[in-house]
Write a structure and sequence with these properties.
globular, 183 residues, mainly alpha, single chain
C-alpha cells in the first residue's frame, strides 16, 4: 500500500508503523479487558497494523476488501455510539478514513495507489491530512501537559494511566497521518 523512493526505506518505515499500531492495539485490548473502554481503539490499532504490512502485491488481493468491510462495520458501530454523545465522533472519522484508504488500495496490485498519479479525491485526502495533523498536534500538547503533573492513577473509567491512554491515542493518530501521507 505504501510507496517510497527506496524500497529499503519503505520497508523499514512500514514495519515500524506495523509495530507502532500493533503495540497500540495490544495496549487498547488489554485496557478493554479491564475496567472498560478501548475495544474500538484495539480494532483500529490492529487494523492499521494489518494495512501497513508491506506484502508487495503478493497475496495482497484479499486485504483491502476485507479490511474495508471490517472498518465499515466499525464505522456503523461508532455511528450507533454517537447517540450517547459526540465523544465517539473521532472513532467514526477514523473508521471512515480506514474505509477510504482500503477502497483506494482495492484497485488491484497493478493499479494500486502507488502506481497512480493521484489516489483518491485530493480535497478529501487533504481534509483528512489536516484533521489528523491537528489531532496529532493537539494530542501531543495534551501529552506534554499531562507529563508536567505525573499521575499513576488510572484514567477515569479507562483502566490505565491517563498518560498511557493519551500516548496510545497519539501513536494511532500519527500512524493514520503516516498512512494518509503515503496515498
Amino acid at each position: 500500500m505504501h510507496g517510497s523512493a527506496t524500497p529499503l526505506a519503505s520497508s523499514v518505515s512500514s514495519w515500524l508503523l506495523v509495530l507502532l499500531c500493533a503495540v497500540s492495539g495490544a495496549y487498547c485490548l488489554r485496557r478493554a479487558r479491564g475496567a472498560g473502554g478501548g475495544a474500538g481503539e484495539a480494532v483500529m490499532g490492529f487494523g492499521m497494523a494489518l494495512m501497513a504490512v508491506p506484502l508487495g502485491g503478493r497475496g495482497d488481493e484479499w486485504r483491502a476488501p476485507v479490511l474495508g468491510v471490517v472498518f465499515l462495520g466499525a464505522a456503523l458501530h461508532a455511528l450507533w455510539l454517537l447517540r450517547d454523545g459526540s465523544h465517539h465522533a473521532h472513532h467514526l472519522v477514523g473508521s471512515l478514513t480506514m474505509v477510504y484508504m482500503a477502497s483506494m488500495a482495492w484497485t488491484g496490485p497493478e493499479h494500486g495507489p502507488e502506481h497512480s498519479q493521484a489516489a483518491g479525491p485530493p480535497l478529501l485526502t487533504g481534509a483528512l491530512l489536516l484533521y489528523y495533523a491537528g489531532y496529532v498536534v493537539l494530542g501531543g500538547t495534551r501529552l506534554v501537559t499531562a507529563g508536567d503533573a505525573p499521575s499513576r492513577r488510572p484514567a477515569a473509567g479507562r483502566g490505565g494511566p491517563a498518560v498511557l491512554v493519551r500516548a496510545c491515542r497519539l501513536a494511532m493518530g500519527m500512524g493514520m497521518l503516516a498512512m494518509l501521507l503515503t496515498m
